[in-house]
Write a structure and sequence with these properties.
The protein has two domains: 137 residues, Rossmann fold; 79 residues, no CATH class. The chain is 44% helix and 11% strand. The chain has ten helices and seven strands. The strands form two sheets. Strands 1, 2, 3, 4 and 5 form a five-stranded parallel beta sheet that branches. Helix 1 links the parallel strand 1 and strand 2. Helix 1 packs parallel to helix 8, helix 6 packs antiparallel against helix 7 and helix 9 packs across helix 10. The protein is globular and about 55 Å long.
Amino acid sequence: MMQLNPLISFDMKRIIIIGEGATEQAFCNSLLQPHFNAKGIYIQSPVISKSGGGIVSWEALKRQIENYMKSDPSVFVTLFIDYYGIEEKHNYPDWLAGLANPDKYERIRMMEEGMRNDLHASFRHRFIPYVQLHEFEGLLFCGLDVFDTNFKAEEFLDHDYLVETIAENDNPELINDGTATAPSKRLARILKDYYVEKRINNKVLYGSLISEEIGLNQMREKCPHFNEWITQLENV
């Protein structure tokens, strides 16, 4: 069971953000925690427990969500997982039905509402479902200047591809989920040491660095679904 921070005030609201992995966890700790602390909301950011980070079946994630709510009748629980990587075998509510919807935002909202409705009725009002369209790493494509300021020329593999990606995607959430063109795959093509098999994996480091430089406000301006989520959390 997670331990409360001894510095948390008893009159602070508490939100548990179950993240897909260490990258999302680092983002919550570095950007979301200070933002919400200032609003009297305490954030805890565990990863998916069954896998230690990584997509699992809905039933496994549902158990984790409901266990947190059973242990504290005042806590709110939300998710920070990627749509990319979820498959039919994971049995997420309305995932399969959503594939028929050409509007990607509606597809995500169908899933989110399906997850909420699948929880026990007594928990639903304290659950704020969120699925990132398409990957967390999409949030990192909010501006070219952040990359050019923080990386040297020799650290880029393909700077032109970075420029092209940002120019073509004013809304970074819409960068697609292709196996070679999903946001994380693009970063691996753009930055030399972002991810090289098992020898080098700077996903967490780079994700934290870039997101802190972009800042929460710019992400909210560029990414409407992400902004909706943050707004919901602010109003618990």
